[in-house]
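User: When convenient, might I ask for sequence and structure tokens for a protein?

AI:
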Amino acid sequence: MFKKDSLVTGIIIGAVVTVGGYFAIYYLNIWISDYFFNKAPVFGKSSVEVFAIFLNVFPFRYFMLKTDKELIGRGILMVTFIVGLSYFFYYLQ
């Protein structure tokens, strides 16, 4: 799929998985709560953000172990750390 091992590719993959995962989990959360429970969403905003950050584990593991693309894995890990640290500093109050 990805022939070249590049840090920029890893950063793009990490950002797309995080943002795409956030919106997918957010709208799935709203749909499930409306369809089954007819009330407020099941998970709060901070929980959805943590789930979206956690989704980077799957492409990271794939690129580091299965395909042996170390630079792509490092890019995904860098995005994960940056987003994770910004999350904790935002909610540190």
In short: The mean pLDDT is 90. The CA atoms of residues 16 and 56 lie 10 Å apart. The longest helix spans residues 7-37. Residues 7-90 form one domain.
